[in-house]
Structure formats: C-alpha cells, structure tokens
C-alpha cells in the first residue's frame, strides 16, 4: 500500500502530521522533531508516526505536486 507513494524515482517522503499525510521534498529524509516545509507549502514539525497515523488521508495538494514532480522526472528520463 505504501509502495504506491514511492514510484521508481523517489519524488517525495510522506509523513502524517495532524491527521493528514503530507508530502516532503525527497532531498532529505525526515526525522521526528524536525521542521519541514511540505509540498503544499506548510511548515510542519515531523512526529513519529504510529500505525494509525499512516491511515490518515493524503493531502490533495501535496499529492498533485508529487505527481507533477514524478511526471517531470519521467519526461526527463524519456528524453534521454
Ligand atoms: Zn500537504
């Protein structure tokens, strides 16, 4: 289930924050206590997710942004 959020080229890390699963830039793995900007432009503090937290709904804005980034990566790969 979680695999669908991580296509071949990793474009985002997903972390549940306050009941919503947000996307984070793939450049650095998130760790609990860290302040990060989400793909939808919110600054959040990363928490240690529980099994229940992973069932949180995905942030639609982050999802669209992650999809756009993945498509861009794939377009780049096609062009080579
Ligand atoms: Zn978001």
Automatic annotation (TrEMBL):
Record protein name field: Zinc finger protein
Superkingdom of the source species: Bacteria
Pfam families reported in the protein's UniProt record: zf-HC3
Organism (species): Saccharopolyspora oryzae
């Amino acid at each position: 289930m979680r695999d669908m959020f991580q296509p071949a080229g990793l474009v985002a890390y997903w972390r549940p924050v306050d009941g919503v699963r947000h996307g984070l830039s793939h450049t650095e793995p998130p760790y609990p206590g860290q302040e990060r900007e989400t793909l939808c432009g919110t600054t959040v503090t990363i928490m240690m997710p529980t099994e229940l937290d992973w069932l949180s709904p995905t942030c639609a804005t982050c999802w669209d942004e992650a999809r756009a980034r993945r498509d861009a990566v794939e377009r780049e790969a096609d062009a080579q």
